[in-house]
C-alpha cells in the first residue's frame, strides 16, 4: 500500500485496442486522441488531484496488451496500489480475456491488490440501434462479482463520460484503506 512519501500507483491493463491509452489521455489532457492506433509498450502519467479534501499524487501506468509484450508488462506491477482491468464493451474477446488472461496475471503478481473492472468505449453501445452485439452493464457487473473486483465502472474517452469517475474512485477507495490502516496501527500503538 502507498506511503505518504510516494504517489498512489494505478496500473491499467487489458487487451490491445480496448481504449486504455485513450482513457488516460482523455483524463490527463481533456481531449480525445484522434489518429492511427499505435500500441503502447509502456507509458505513465503523473499528476496531483484533490480527492475527498486531500491532495493526492498519482501515477497512472499504461501497459501494452499485445502478446509481444507479455514478458515486459509484469515489470510495471511491483508497488501497484490498484489495478484497472479494462475491456471494450464492443469486443467480446476482450471481455472473455479478463477471466482467461488478465485476472490471473495480476493476481499472480499482486494477489492482495484491489481491482476495478472498467468497460470502455460505451459511446459505441450507447449510440447503436442494436444493443445485442455489446457487453451490457449487467454483464460487466456480473464479471466484476466473479473476479471479486471492488467495483465495475464504465466510460467513454471519446465523449468524456465516466472518465473522471474511473480515476477518482480508486483514489477515494485507497484513501479510505490507508486511513483505516493508519487508525488501526495507531490503536495498537496505544496499547504499548
From TrEMBL:
Domain of life of the organism encoding this protein: Eukaryota
Q: Which InterPro entries match?
A: P-loop_NTPase, Small_GTP-bd, Small_GTPase, Small_GTPase_Rho
Query: What Pfam families does the record tag this protein with?
Result: Ras (PF00071)
Q: Where in the cell is it found?
A: Cell membrane
Q: How does it sit in the membrane?
A: Lipid-anchor
This protein's GO cellular component annotations are:
plasma membrane
Gene Ontology BP term (one): developmental process involved in reproduction
User: What GO MF terms are annotated?
Assistant: GTP binding; GTPase activity
Q: Where is the signal peptide?
A: none
Listed A to Z, the keywords are: Cell membrane, GTP-binding, Lipoprotein, Membrane, Methylation, Nucleotide-binding, Prenylation
What the record says about family reads: Belongs to the small GTPase superfamily. Rho family.
Q: What is this protein called?
A: Ras-related protein ced-10
